[in-house]
Amino acid sequence: MDNETNPGRSWWKWAITPPQSYAVYLACLALVFVLSFYAGTMKPKGSAGMGPPPAPVPAAPRN
Fold first, then answer.
1. CA separation for the pair 44, 51 (Å, rounded)
2. No. of H helices and E strands in the chain?
3. Is the distance from CB of 15 to CB of 24 less than 8 angstroms?
């Protein structure tokens, strides 16, 4: 029973050893950068039927 290996744990153990952990960290960092860049380039959908924004309330008259 002690000799059984769990495939999920073996990948995690491999990923957290020092040489591979640097590569995993850089890959995750690149993934976050690419996803945030992609999300920033998306155009928001305009909501239909909203019309222009309301005009600002005029300030008190000047004398």
1. 16
2. 2, 0
3. yes
pLDDT at 3: 60
User: Is the residue at 25 inside a domain?
Assistant: yes
* DSSP run (H or E) holding 31: helix 18-41
Q: What is the pTM of this model?
A: 0.53
Residue 21 lies in a domain: yes
Question: 6-15 pLDDT, tens per residue?
Answer: 666 788 888 8
Asked whether the predicted pLDDT for residue 45 surpasses 90, the reply is no
Q: Is residue 50 part of a domain?
A: no
Question: For residues 10 and 57, what is the distance between their CA atoms, to the nearest angstrom?
Answer: 65
